[in-house]
Fold each of these.
Amino acid sequence: MSFLNRKKAPGPHLGLSMVAALTPPEVEVSLTDENVTAIDFQKEIDLVGITALTITAKRAYEIADTFRAKGVKVILGGSHPSALPKEASQHADAVVIGEAEGIWENVIEDFNANKLQRIYSQCKQPSLLNLPIPRRDLFTNGAYYFRNTISTTRGCPHACSFCSVTSFFGHTYRCRPVEEILKEIETMNYKKLICFVDDNIVGKPKFAKELFRALVSYKLKWIAQASVTIARDDELLKLAAASGCMSLLIGFETLSQDNLAAMGKKVNVVDEYEKVIRKIHSHGIAIHGFFILGLDEDDEYVFERTVRFAQKMKLESAQFAWPVPYPGTALYESLDKAGRIVTKDWSQYESSIVFKPKLMSREILQKGHDWVWCEFYSLPSIWRRLGITHRYLLPLWVLNLYYRSFWRRKLRVNRDSNKFKPPTSSLSNIRTWFRLN
């Protein structure tokens, strides 16, 4: 397959490359990422390992069934099989629940002895000491925009109802030794952008400070997910900037404190959002905001309110989503118990609204969601947020124009969303709109 005909993905997932690193050296390993290359079902292999998210579960099962029909043994793992092992076991010879360390070696031994168990599960959280370096040599060359992905922690100290991270990692937050992280970075081309794939890189401030201090001499440029708490610790924020932080991906989620309380995200305080954003910006760090539309306290005014806030605060980029009830999460349990989940066709999760919103129809939520994306990434909006003097002007304009192009193409198919206009609750809201514009 030529480079021009091959799909390109933002960055490689580390899960299977870590599993490959855990595999005994005498075992020949190959890695296929279907985001960028096609699967060769005719290749002669003895064992297939597949990792699956909820949105990829249906496809993962199809792949597994195809290989098993050929007599090839299949192992399924990842967040979705870990949440629903009985379902996954219908398509696999074995299911790995949770993290691979301490389990995968046993899987290989049992496979070689023709004694695979149906379920392999962690008895305790594996140590993050002396982890092998992921097999990045197995990644397809030229297939990713950002190849330098690295993990320094696992888990998150918070327990948001919509997030599968907490259920997968067992309500823990663990950190790797800083010296081991540095050794791994030295195996990479760290002159290029580093993407820390941690769910919250500042979940333990003491560790984050130690890491950031150690990174200063490397003169990196990096991005990572972080919570709003980074702005409450001046030393932590200064060290992040000094160590080369280019952008932080922050889950603001909602402008409703009641929504935050319902989702269990006590760490966020809506009244502090403006202060948080201005403080991070004052250190030259860009912000990619995450917002959820259609929570139980959201009516039809949420679309206008959210996008105007993001524009007013000049967020360099943002993503807007509706709630997704992933299996294993508290959100899934509550919506399922209330009979508000409309389908369990996992392939529709994220691409479609699979639950009944409380204060609006699914149709209005879909149209409002699409309108917010297009409004935020309109050319006037991009110009007002970025201008021509931003510190990271070129990459941010490229990112914004990419999102703009994507949503313009998408809405050519769904022309109704182009006609959608969100309601304004009062004359004061209309005045606010003109003031922001």
Amino acid sequence: MTRPQNVVARKLANALMKDAEIGDRTQMILGPGGRLGTNAVKKLMGGLWVGGTAYLTDDAVEFHPNGMNRAIHKDPESLSVVLPLRSITSVETRFGIATQIIDIKTAIGTLSIRCYGAQGFARKIEAARAP
């Protein structure tokens, strides 16, 4: 993944991906117990938390998985998300264990990311959305 152009801010983050799937090789390494645990976490959380970097650019919020997550997931390209600022309807922070969670909402869904300094990053997103 190439770093986006015109980066205003960036955060190491995890994004909740409802369609994330562990790759076949990773499933073999995890064994039956690990696969059951991963499936249970996915069901409980509504997806898997994928590590990577969240970027705020002049015109979008982007999330791209890190190298380790690209290696362990099926279809790693599907884990990258680009939300144009004009499509964002709201940005909210909520409680999370260890780090707060930012819910970035659009008309078609919500991207949830967790990172240190979540409130400050959310404020930057809101400021970038302002006309």
